[in-house]
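Possible regression after last week's pipeline update?

I re-ran a chain I had predicted before the update to compare outputs. Posting the input and the new output here so someone can diff against the archived version. Not blocking, just want to make sure nothing changed silently.
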Amino acid sequence: MQEESVTPNTESNSAYLRRCKAAEIRPHPARFPQGFAEFFIKFLTDEGDMVLDPFAGSNTSGFVAQTLQRRWISFEINEDYVMGSRYRFTQ
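New output (post-update):
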């Protein structure tokens, strides 16, 4: 039986991770790909609509929503993740 290699659904060298590391902020351990959020945001909303993410983590959904010209609101209980998510929106 051939063993399959498993590729995780996380980014390993993104600007988000580099900025978190530089700021000594613990990044969210279970980030999902932007393409995942993009598919559902495009499928379920139109420009100007509101996207709600009640468990934001690293705020991939908010970033993608803003990129696609949607309004967004997100919630996250872990302050480290909130602080790190700011790096998705800065250069």
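Follow-up from reviewer: compared with the archived run. The longest helix spans residues 34-44. Marking as no regression found.
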